[in-house]
Structures are given as structure tokens and as C-alpha cells.
Amino acid sequence: MIELQRVSVRYADAPAPVLREVDLSVPEGELTLVIGHTGSGKTTLLRTVNGLVPHFSGGTLTGRVLIAGRDTRTHRPRDLADVVGFVGQDPLSGFVTDTVEDELAYGMESLGLPADVMRRRVEETLDLLGMAAVRGRPLSDLSAGQQQRVAIGSVLTTHPRVLVLDEPTSALDPLAAEEVLATLQRLVHDLGLTVLLAEHRLERVVQYADRVVLLGNGTVQAGPPEQLLRDSPVAPPVVELGRLAGWEPLPLSVRDARRRATGLRERLAGLQAPGDPEPSPEPAATVGDLVVRYGRVVALRGVSLELRRGEVVALMGRNGAGKSTLLKTLVGLRRPDAGTVRVAGAVPAELPPEQLLHHVGLVPQVPGDLLYAATVADECANADADGRAPAGTTWATFQRLAAGVPADLHPRDLSEGQRLTLALAVVLAARPPVLLLDEPTRGLDYTAKRRLVQILRGLAAEGHTVLLATHDVELVAEVATRVLMLADGELVTDAPTSDAMVSSPAFAPQVAKVLAPQRWLTPSAVAAALADDAAAVGG
Amino acid sequence: MRAANLPSVPRPLHPGAWWVWAIGLAAAASRTTNPAPLLLIVAVTALVVAGRRSDAPWSASYGAFLRLALVVIVIRVVLQALLSADSQGPTVLITLPQVPLPSGTGIQLGGPISLEAVLAALYQGLQLATILVCVGAANALGSARRLLRSVPGALYEVGVSCVIALTFAPQLVTDARRVREAHRLRGRRRRGLRAWARLAMPVVEGALERSVELAAAMDSRGYGRTTDVARVSRRVTAGLVFGGLLGVCVGVYGLLDGTASHWLGLPTLAGGAVLAAAGIGLGGRRTGRTRYRPDPWALPEWLVAGCGVLAALAMFVQMRHDPASLVLASVTELPPVPLLAVVGILIGALPVVLAPPPPAPAEAPTSEPARFGVAA
Prior knowledge:
The structure holds two protein chains of two kinds.
Chain A (H helix, E strand, L loop, with lengths): L1 E9 L8 E8 L4 E6 L5 H8 L2 H4 L4 E8 L2 E2 L12 E4 L3 H4 L5 H12 L3 H15 L14 H13 L5 E5 L7 H18 L2 E5 L3 H4 L5 E6 L2 E5 L1 H4 L8 H9 L8 H7 L1 H8 L13 E12 L2 E12 L3 E5 L6 H8 L7 E6 L9 H4 L3 E4 L12 H11 L6 H9 L14 H13 L5 E5 L7 H16 L3 E5 L3 H7 L2 E6 L2 E7 H6 L7 H6 L7 H16 L1
Parallel strand pairs in A: 3-8, 3-9, 6-7, 7-8, 13-17, 13-18, 15-16, 16-17
Antiparallel strand pairs in A: 1-2, 1-4, 4-5, 9-10, 11-12, 11-14, 18-19
Chain B lengths: L14 H16 L4 H18 L8 H23 L8 E8 L9 E6 H27 L2 H6 L6 H30 L7 H28 L10 H27 L8 H21 L12 H23 L17 H9 L3 H4 L22
Antiparallel strand pairs in B: 1-2
Helix pairs in contact in B: 1-4, 1-10, 2-4, 2-11, 3-4, 6-7, 8-9, 10-11
């Protein structure tokens, strides 16, 4: 169905080609998962499939790309619209109309399909997506998961034979991601669609994949997931656990792993799961009976909590549960409508900006918002000036966190992970005792995430208090000592990580699901315990 | 006529019909400064909006337009009272302290304020306010966005641009707010030209990125796939449409202005309309697009649009036969009631029964549609 023959892609003034002599063939009806580091060319590979590369992006493509027999050399993206459905990273930015029904019909209108066919297909697609109840609603009113499903549905109505998706679940909370994946699963099984999908959150999708394509340095390796993940640098926790326990073939889903985990559970039964560290009693921030509302919508309804020195706290909850509002209130961007907020001994909304950054820092969801200089070096110098830190402080921090980035690069040319690190270094210049991060792992691969975990642990050890709002349960399991769960503006959970996560069906990390009822959360904890045990037995 | 299109069957009316109706009332308002028919027009729009608006988000816009109209009246009256030196009448209400300005300017700040000047300003402000309220009613009943869906095929590209602009404008505001918040996080004050330059850069970059993203999405969904025709035919179409619309504008101006000579009005309007129709017809043939669920134009649409046109016509006839009842000779006297115009405006209220009622709102949206049973 998809044939890439010796495909190389090189963008103008890039030092090296993004893809190099790639040969790839995807047979009909398969779900193929594309994995690799950020910047490894996943998006480029996906975009060659419907001709956006090079017709839209520029650059040079050599070799041949054939989709259902059509060559992208002679067919522009619009000429492939009836064969390939392409869904980009951010569904909202791809919407052309403003209600669900119109959006579903848009592609068919462009192709000039007769009115009765359009009518029928829209109804069928609404049923397929389970969205008939919201058919007339404005797209901006939908939840993130619903928007993603509309984006998928809007390309399905032209009855393509290939569906290409770029990170369909990265921005979604676990439950919304499940909705989207369930829909995809159904498309592959019932309609025989060929799906090509790129995703960082392997733990969510790898179990559905028939084949995995691993991209690295512009070249590809393709194979069945069990085989390819054995020594892939990126792997979901359940695979890491499988490697650790030496299971063969590797388990891809929690269910596979659980069926094989009896032995491992017995070995671990006598060992102590790492307990949650005792937090220092010193409070860094307190929130008392906080109410924040936007018009008649109450975003936070009587939330009380306390953050202590040196702890890493995770803030979780559905999209729209009030996480971002809580962070904004803690940095004084929102004034509370009722209740009190004190951070590092001050009321943040009353602090002038130049003092605020010495009390609390926020790395926003789009880290690029914090950056506006023309080069990384200028950015660091600016941050030193803003934070009244000695010259060179920020650059030193940045080098410590992400070594080897050239100083004269424009911040926009950094990778997602590097940009996050730069924003973090900029915020740290003023040494705020309380540090907030909003969705830091969006678009980060496993390697970048591992670095982030080390960085956050280091900061906590230095006495910083870290609060991170995130959907990433694996990150939470790895780094957080306490979990706050918001639902509908109210705080429903405030408990140590292991208590909060082991029992929750949606928010339990994979390792916890495999090893329940034991309280292990991460492969690294299991590995450490096994190593200790082996040393004790051996010694 | 199909039974589904009967006036009694609830359905959203074609937005074009609401706009024709509202423009008719606005045209009527533009011919008079007599407060009696003007207030009647406002009352009629309020009645129809209350009776026939749906529960869509834009339906609330009528209230916003009403407030805007009030502001217009207040500004008009205050400026008139403060600044006009020569147009004051004999009935002085109060005398404000006068600020001497150079005599050459012809403007006077303060001084005596007369009842005549205030009333004249009030009536003129009321006229402008009434036209605004008519636009508000049209927007509340048939949103501008939905109207754009029905633009003819030849103007499709223009329609798409408008829809995208309508989506991007609020997005820009959101972006600007986000970046401004980020500035505060870095300890910067928000003032000064440099701060604005810094604010502008990320916002513009973000907007550009989004545009490119949207263009890619539209291209991969087949936009423009069927519209590649010879350049000559495209130029001819564009020329016809542009020339025609120009003619329509000049014609409408001629008709409404009243002081322009007669040949400028109706003939130019008719000629322009013919040209534009030809262009739109020609252009419509070249697009291979089809339209999903187009809004039908049936009897209720004709009736509603007709009510608006009748209201305007009645006002125009009244103007020809009895202009004194529409343009008051003395503002202090009790305004006369122009009978024919009032009847016309009352016909403008008929859509409250002639238009089909709006359909009931869709059942409360279920937040979580049924899942298909897949384990995590």
C-alpha cells in the first residue's frame, strides 16, 4: 500500500539529510508504528506519504514514494486526498470549519462528492466515532479527545485507504487517549485501513502495532515490535520490565506481562518496595480554600493544599480539571476570587514582576513563550540580568542540563527537549524556591524524559519545591513523591505517589498494573531491588 | 413545496433571509430622523429576536449591539453639547464655562447648551443606533459565519478567507495574553515600546506557524483540487464579479443618499447586479465542489426577506410623498406619526410568526461517549 524506494530528504541549508536511502513497504491493512528520538525525522517520513514533503515543505526528495500505485512526484497532496488521510499533531490548527458536521463534510465537498453520499457518510462516521450526540456543536467546545477524534473522522469521510497520524495521543490525558486508540483499533479491524502512526508515548500504542519502524540518523529498521524493541533505545516500561526479567518474547501489553509475571512477583514478594521519602516539615507554599472562577464557570472550588520544601509533587486530572488555573494562581497570573495563596512567604498576585521571579517560577506549557532573544547566549544573558544573577549563571545551568548546544543557535531551532531545558534554566536563574512546570513532557522522547527526571530530582535535593502538572503517569511514577488529583475544580486526592497511583485504574503506571497488588511503580525500582537482593544472596 | 419547509416545522432559517430582512429595516431607518419610527424599528427587532433566536452562542450578540447603540447615542449627544457653537437653538438649558479656542477653528468648547441642539443630536444618534441594532439582530438570528457557508461557488475562496480570519482573530488575542503572562514570569514590566516588540514577535511567529499548518491540512484534504482552470477564464470571472459588486455599491449609495442624481441609483444597481450574477454564475461552473446540507431557501425565507423589503419600500414611498414627517423641521415639536412608514415597519415584525421556530437544542452533550471496550 505504501512503498518508499531509496527515499532521501534534505531540507535547504540543513547540514545533513533528514532521511537517507529509506526503503520501506507497508502492506495493506497493517498498523505500523514509527518510533525514534525527537528530530529523528518521524514527521518528515509521515509527510512524504501524502506528498506534503516535498510539495509543501520544500527541500529535495530523491527516490520514489508510491501510495496505492500513485507516485507523489506527479501527485500533489490534494490529488492524494481520496487515498491518504493525514492528521497533523495539533487537531485544532487543522480545522477549517467550526462545527463537527461541517468539518466531517469538508473533505468530501472539496472532492465534489454528491450530496446524498456526503449525507450518508457523515452519519456513518458520526456513529463510527461515537460522536452523534455532539454533531452540531462548535469544535472549540469539544474536549481534547473529542477534537482528535473529529480530526480523524474528518479525513475518514473521503474513504481513504491509508491513514497517517502524527502523535495522535501526546497531548491527551490517559482516558482521552484510550478513546482515540479504541477508535483507531476499530478502523484497522473493521475497515481494513492501513495506518501509519508516529508516537512518543509508546506505552499507549505499541500493543496495537503490527510492525514498528525505528528511525535513527535518517535510516530505518522495520520489524515486529517484540523483536525491534529488544534493543531499541526507546522502550515503554512494560518492555523494560520484560528485558529485566528476561521474558521471551517481550511482552507488549500489560496483559501479556501480567500472565508471565507470576515468577517475578514471587521473587519480589519478600523485597521491600521503595517507600516514599519523608518530606521536610517546612512549608514552601500554602493554598487555603481557594476559589477561582471565569464568569459562571468555577475552575477551582475550595482547594486547600500545602507544598513542602524539597518535594516533587505531581498535579494530575483530566483536561480542563483546573490544573493550569492552579498553577497560574500560584504564580500570581490569576487573582483568587476567594481564599488565600502564599508562596515562599508572599502573596504572588501582589508581588511586582521583578520580585516575583525570586519567589516562584513557572515553565509554561509552551516553553517557547518564555524565550524571545535571537540566540541561546543572548537568552541566557537576559535571564542573568532579569534574575540579578552573576553573568554566566544561566549558561552554566543550561550546559549542566543539556551539554553541547551551540550558543549562537536561535531558540526556535532547538529541539523540543532542549527548548524546555533552556526555559527551565532561564527560570532557575532567579533561584525561585518554588518551581512549577505545566505539561513538561509534551513532545519529549524517553531519553529527554529521563534527563528531565534527573534534573527534577537534583533540584528537589537542592531544596527546591517542584510542582508539575502532567498527564504522563510514567513520569509521575518515576519522579513524584506526592500526587494531587483535581477533578472538576476540586481536590480529590492528596496522597503519597504509591498510594495514589497503585489503586487508580486510569492513572496506574504499567509496572504497577503488572505487579499489583505489590506496590512497585517503575522498572528502575524493580531493577534496584533485584540487584540488592542478588548482592545480598551473593555476599 | 416540501412539507419539511413549511413555516410551522422548526428549522433554522436561511441566514441570508434574516440579513435581507435586517438590511431592509436598516435601510428604512437610514431615511428618517423621526424618533417615532426609529424606536418602533428597535422594538420590532427586539420582538423578533426574542421570538426566533436559537440558543447558539452568537444569539447573545443582540444585547452587545444594544449596549453599543446606547454608547453611540451618548457620545453623539455629549459631543454635540460640548463642541457645537453655531448649531445651538434659542432654548438654552444650561450654560457651561466656555474654554476659549482660536476663533479660526470654528469649534467652541463649552458655552450655552440648548434643548434644540441636544434633541437634534439625540435623534441623529438614535438613527445610527437603530441601524446598529438591526445589524445586531441579523447577527443574532443568522450568524455571519453561517452566512459565509452559503456564499456562491465563485466567491468560495473569499468566504474561506473570511471564516479563517474569524477563527484566527480570537486565537491571536489568546496568544498575546499567553506571551504577556510569560513576560511577567520573567520579571519584566509590560510597558514600553521594546516590550511590545518582544510581545509581537512570538505572537506573529505563532500565527504564521498556524497558518502554514492550516494550509497543509487544507491541501491534504483536497482544497483547490478541482478549481484549476485556464487563467483567462479565472481573470474574466474575477473582473466580472469585482465590476459588478462595484456597480452594486455605487447603486446602493445612489439610492440611499437621496441627494445624488437619479441615474446613479437604480440603473447602476441593476447593471451591477447583472454583472456580478454573470461572474458568479460563470465562476460557479468552474468549481467542482459540492455542498453539504445547504440551507434551503423556501417559502419562509421569501416571506421573511419580503417583510424587510416591504418595510424599506414603505419608508421610501413615505419619503417621496411626505418628507416632512420623516425629516423633522423643528425638533422641539412632538414628532408626527408617518402612517405608511409605521405600517411598513409593523410588517417587518411579522417574521416573529412567519419564520419557523428554531429547533430545540440538542440533548445535553454526553461528556464521555460510549467506549468500545479496549484495555489500557
